[in-house]
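Contributing new records

If you add data, match the layout below exactly. Sequence lines come first and carry their own label; structure lines follow with theirs. Keep one chain per record. Anything else will be rejected by the validation script.
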Amino acid sequence: MAYGNYNKKNEQQSLANQAEAWYLCNLLVLPGISFIILARLFIKHGGGDRSLIGTNHVRQTFFMSLLGGGLVFCGCTGLYLWLGNTGNAWMWIIMYFTLVHTSFVMWGILGLAWSLAKKPIAYPRF
């Protein structure tokens, strides 16, 4: 293996790990700020070759963040508009938020495990 390929492979591995880490930070620690950093990674590296592991993980985490934010916002707003401002509605909103948020955190943990194992994301493909 040539020395240049080894460095490029490590760079892609590092990029994949960074993308998954910022995705989980966006969900768990620093929402908003982490998404801005993830969007910056997407703008800089997301348009490259999709077969590279770094580009694959950057694209997946960016679009999963958009999908997660959209599902949480639209779902909670829809439930609030449908059920009104009642105690029963808030129970359903909290349950919906917890279910969707936990699902996206689990996808993030799987994505981080795949990036640490140097494997591309298999689903969903964006």
